[in-house]
Amino acid sequence: MALVNQSEFARMFGFAKQTVNGWVRTGRILIDDAGLIDVEAARRRLAATASPMLHHEANRQKYAERRQAAPAMLAAAKQRAEAMEQFADRLGRCEEILVAMIVAEVPKLAGSMDRLRREAWEQSGNDGRH
Fold first, then answer.
1. Residue 31: C-alpha distances to residues 10, 39, 72, 82 (Å)
2. Whole-prediction pTM value?
3. Phi/psi at 37 (nearest 5 deg)?
4. pLDDT tens across 67-112, in order?
5. Count of beta carbons in the 10 Å neighbourhood of residue 100
6. CB-hemisphere CA count at 13 Å for 11?
7. Is the distance from CB of 91 to CB of 35 less than 8 angstroms?
């Protein structure tokens, strides 16, 4: 007889903790004096009190499919996160390279600007003296 708290029961079966709490409040799941749930007894009570309505069965099926797909979806999300991290790292390296290139070019540009000013001054008829 495995005894777990409500959070552990919710995690074990993929329910929201609030859902399990609601089942306890309404008596659908019983807890002992310590607030623990007998897992097997709770599973039997849930099965015995499950709604026979078709739309409830469809929801149960949908959630069961989601629980089965969850590990694959989580793995895919982790792969996307890793790819994004790698892209961010490459982007950061590109930024560092661009900054280094700009820093290297600034003195050259300043020198070119000075040369162009001198040439323009000289072409305007000035001899370079003030």
1. 14, 10, 33, 42
2. 0.43
3. -110, 130
4. 888 889 889 999 999 999 999 999 989 999 989 998 888 888 888 8
5. 10
6. 5
7. no
